[in-house]
Amino acid sequence: MPYIATPLKDLWVFEPRVFEDSRGYFFESFNQQQFEQATNLQVQFVQDNQSLSQYGVVRGLHMQWGEAAQAKLVRALSGTVLDIVVDIRPNSTTFGKSFSIELSGENKKQLFVPRGFLHGFVVLSEKAEFFYKCDNYYAPQAEGGVLLTDTDLALDWRVPTDKMIISDKDQKLPTWKEFLGLLNTQKDIA
Fold it and tell me: Which of 25, 119, 132, 138 is catalytic?
């Protein structure tokens, strides 16, 4: 299974080998042993999540604090999304850096997002079905995040702001500067 390292430590792109014929296609979407051998990381997924969204829906930038932090393996089952992550590990050499990748039902790429990253995505197609595996359970009391349109982060979501569909909850997330203040009060984010 081809795992490709990104410029951000422990963030991996997975491009599965797809077998196609007249009947359709088949591919192995995850193999624990191959993942560990390729990445030198150990992860045990405990929860799967799936969403369906229309063009312009932005979900993020989300994370969970402390012991509730989550690593995720994300992909688009159908449609196309732009997936964006930001490294928020204080001791990381890539702290504050972002990475984006287009994930689609067609390209079948996946992104492994380690603990200690903000994560979000925007739907670029008419609709998209998004799926992700998590290594920790959803913990509403540990939720955190950053306002996805924050100018200090200057993320290119590739959808005009007036076309973005953002939840009320996500519109109330702190700015990057406010988040950095919160980060300084936390002992552990991952």
Answer: 132
- What residues does each domain of the chain span? 3-17+46-185
Question: What Cα–Cα distance (Å) separates residue 170 from each residue in 3, 37, 51, 150?
Answer: 31, 36, 16, 12
Q: How far apart are the first and last CA of the chain?
A: 27
C-alpha separations of 156 from 2, 19, 34, 152, 185 in Å = 27, 34, 33, 12, 29
State yes or no: cis peptide before 155, omega within 30 of 0.
Answer: no
Known active-site residue 137: no
pTM for the model: 0.93
Of 49, 67, 110, residue with least CA distance to 85: 110
Burial of 3 (0-12, 13-18, 19+ CB in 10 A): middle
Specify the pLDDT at position 188. Answer: 62
A 10 A CB-CB count for 45 gives 17
Instruction: Tell which residue, 187, 182, 114, 177, has the closest CA to residue 147.
Output: 177
CATH superfamily membership of 3-17+46-185: Jelly Rolls (2.60.120.10)
pLDDT tens for 19-53 read 989 998 898 888 899 999 999 999 999 999 999 99
Q: For residue 3, indicate whether it is catalytic.
A: no
The residue annotated as part of the active site, out of 3, 25, 62, 138, is 62
Residue in the block written with tokens 């088949």: 26
Q: E strand or H helix at 170, and its extent? A: helix 168-171
